Amino acid sequence: MRNVFGTIRQLAAAIIGTIGLAACGPDKDTMRFEGKLQNIRQAEFYIYSEDNPAIGFDTIHISGGQFTYEKKLDRPTVLTLLYPNFSKTYIVAEPGRTIKMKGDAAKIGEAEITGNEDNKRLTEFRQRMFSQPAANMKPAAAQFVRDNAATLSATAIFLQVFAELRQPDTRYTDELLQVLKKAQPKAQFIKDLEQRLLPLSKTSEGKSMPAFNITTTTGATLTASACQGTPLLLVFWASWNYDSYSLLRQAASLQKRFAPKLQVVALSFDTDKSAAARQIKDAAPDLTLVCDGKGFNSPHAESFAVNNIPGTMLIDAKGKIIARDLLGKQLDDRVQALF
């Protein structure tokens, strides 16, 4: 009987200990993220970090409208929450701290996120901006970055509003990167952001096209100077990218309509030259093809600041970039406006 009571006491102590551990915060080298959402039972979303590779890419599972997620963390980090509708929320996690999220799943962007001062500021900003016209977002975000430049909440807002754009708004990005670098001089991620965005800034709308010297798959050489005098459409694509096929077909149609007044060059970022050749033969056999087989390690990726595909760069007869990354009807209309 004593052994039975002893076993019961040991079990009770273990249960109490487990409850006590659950009630405590995470270990000092671990972040915890807890959530309670209304109007949802079962779902999942993703969490990752652009500035801390150790985080990786994880899935958070919602069950009964709640979730708990833990991850080892060596320093405070901006995390990205990616939802099934492809919208995003940025949060700031810290080792040894618990971040909490609550709100309506139907209005996930307005959810309250707490746990530290950075998340408090981010929540207040998001909720305030939901009632504002879209035109107010960039000026308000820029001021937020200036006012909080030394914090990770400023980095999060810069990522959300400015760095996610396929074509950065140089009215803000150049200045704000310098503000962040000055306030966070040891932040390698800010330096990496600058390295990523600076080429985009140099090849944005209104700038002169970059100097280039490229060789087509037929051995012909194309240079920036030789291309001046006729509008030029550069198409950035890859055979493994599903949406590239329709863009190639569209580019071929534009060339057929406007040649010889329009030049079209298809720049492939395939690592397999034969795959690029097969795709172009099937989708747009009359387009000029460039493929060096180096993928995104190609010097063309840096020259034209290609971070995403499919994409485009439209250059007028004087060599000025007049549009970037237009697709579909927007591309058709912009090309049509040249003639």
Give a structural overview:
The protein has 339 residues and is α+β, with helices and mostly antiparallel strands. It is 39% helix and 24% strand. The protein has helices spanning 2-23, 117-129, 137-147, 152-163, 170-183, 188-202, 224-227, 244-258, 273-283, 299-303, 328-336; strands spanning 30-38, 42-48, 57-63, 66-72, 77-82, 88-93, 98-104, 112-114, 213-215, 221-223, 232-237, 263-268, 288-290, 311-315, 321-324. Strands 13-12-11-14-15 form a five-stranded mixed sheet, with helices on one face. The protein has a four-stranded mixed sheet with strand order 4-1-7-8. The radius of gyration is 26 Å and the shape is elongated. The N and C termini lie far apart (97 Å).
Provide a compact summary of the structure.
With 339 residues, the protein is of the alpha+beta class. It contains 11 helices and 15 strands.
Write the layout of secondary structure elements.
Layout: H1 2-23, E1 30-38, E2 42-48, E3 57-63, E4 66-72, E5 77-82, E6 88-93, E7 98-104, E8 112-114, H2 117-129, H3 137-147, H4 152-163, H5 170-183, H6 188-202, E9 213-215, E10 221-223, H7 224-227, E11 232-237, H8 244-258, E12 263-268, H9 273-283, E13 288-290, H10 299-303, E14 311-315, E15 321-324, H11 328-336
Parallel strand pairs: 1-7, 11-12, 12-13
Antiparallel strand pairs: 1-4, 2-3, 2-5, 5-6, 7-8, 9-10, 11-14, 14-15
Helix pairs in contact: 2-4, 3-4, 3-5, 4-5, 5-6
